[in-house]
Write a structure and sequence with these properties.
This protein has 365 residues and is mostly helical. It contains 18 helices and no strands. Helix 7 packs antiparallel against helix 13 and helix 10 packs across helix 11. The longest helix is centred in the middle third of the chain and has 19 residues. The N terminus is likely disordered. It binds iron/sulfur cluster. Its cofactor is [4Fe-4S] cluster. Belongs to the Nth/MutY family. This is Endonuclease III. Keywords: 4Fe-4S, DNA damage, DNA repair, DNA-binding, Endonuclease, Glycosidase, Hydrolase, Iron, Iron-sulfur, Lyase, Metal-binding, Nuclease.
Amino acid sequence: MKKAAKKAAAEVTETAAKPAGKTADASAPAGSAEKKAAPAAGKTAPAKKAPVKKTAAKKTGSANAKKTVPAGKAAVAKKVKPADVVVPGGAAVEKGTPVKKIAVRPPGGESPTALVRRARRINRELAEVYPYAHPELDFENPFQLLVATVLSAQTTDLRVNQTTPALFARYPTPEDLAAADPEEVEQILRPCGFFRAKTRSVIGLSKSLVENFGGEVPGRLEDLVTLPGVGRKTAFVVLGNAYGRPGITVDTHFQRLVRRWRWTEETDPDKIEAAVGALFPKSEWTDLSHHVIWHGRRICHARKPACGACPIAPLCPAYGEGETDPEKAKKLLKYEKGGFPGQRLNPPQAYLDAGGRPAPPLGAA
Ligand code: SF4
C-alpha cells in the first residue's frame, strides 16, 4: 500500500503546476512569497520524505496519529514551537474578537510537538502540490471580494464568478448597490440560489459601508463583522486576500479535512479556528487556508476522497476513508488536478502558467 501511495502521489504531483513563480496578483495574500519558490517540478512523492509505513499501509481511519509521523525530522525541528497556553482550548470566540492562542491539545495520543510537526509538514507538502493556490472568487477590489464572499454561501465559487460580472458591471460601487432596486438585483443573483436573502445582504452591507465607513470596506475584523451578513469566515477572507492580514477561513472543506487529519476534534468553526491557529505561525494562516480548501475541493472530497491519488497520504490518519486504488482515485480528481477548468473566469497568471484553465462564463458549454 505504501508503494501505491507513493505512485499515486507521484502521479498527482506530476499534474501539479511547474510555475515560474507566483506573479503579483491582487488576490494574492501578503506573505505568500515563499510559495513561489516551491514548484512541483522535480517532486516525486511525499512518501519519499515521509517514510511512514503504518498509516499508508493500514486502511484505517482511526490510526494513532503518532504512527503517522516519522520521528525527529531535523529540518522541521527548529521551527516547531507549539503555541503558548493563553486561554483554555475550546473557549468561545466572540464574533469580532481576534483569535487568542490556545494550548495545542492533540485529540489522539500524539504529543503536542508531534502534532505541530505533522500539521506543518502537511501544509508544506500542500504548498508544493498547490503552489498557485489563491482565492477562487474573481475580484478586483475589496468591495467585490466582500460581495462575492457573501454570495458564495450555499453555492460554488464558480457559480458566483459566473454571476458577479453582470452585478459589478451594473453596480460597481457600494453607493450604486446601496441605491439599487432589489428586484433588479434579485434577477441578477438568481443563479446563485437564495437570491432574495443574498440581495438583502449585499444591498444591506453596501448601505452600511456608505453610512458607516465612507463607502470603503474596512480593514479590521471588528468593523467587518458589523456588516449585515458578514461573519468571521467572510471577514477573514477579505482581510487575508484583500488586505494581506492573516486569517484562517474555516469553511466546510477546512472543517472536514482538519478533523480527518486529527488536528482537532472541535466542531464549532470558531473553536476550530483557534485550535488550528495554535499549530501555525500567524503569517501562514491565509496560505494554509487556501492549501486546505484547495485540497478539499480537488482530492479530499467529502464523500469520496481520492486517497489513492493523494500526495499527503503518508501523513494522513484517515488514509483509506476513500478510494485507495490509484487508477480509480485518479478519476475522482477535480479542477486542474483532473484536467478540468478551474473556478475563476480570471485566474491569476501563475495558475495559467501551471496549465490551469479559466472557468467558462455563465451559459457557456
Ligand atoms: S484524500 Fe483525504 S483522507 Fe485520503 S489520504 Fe488524502 S488527505 Fe487523507
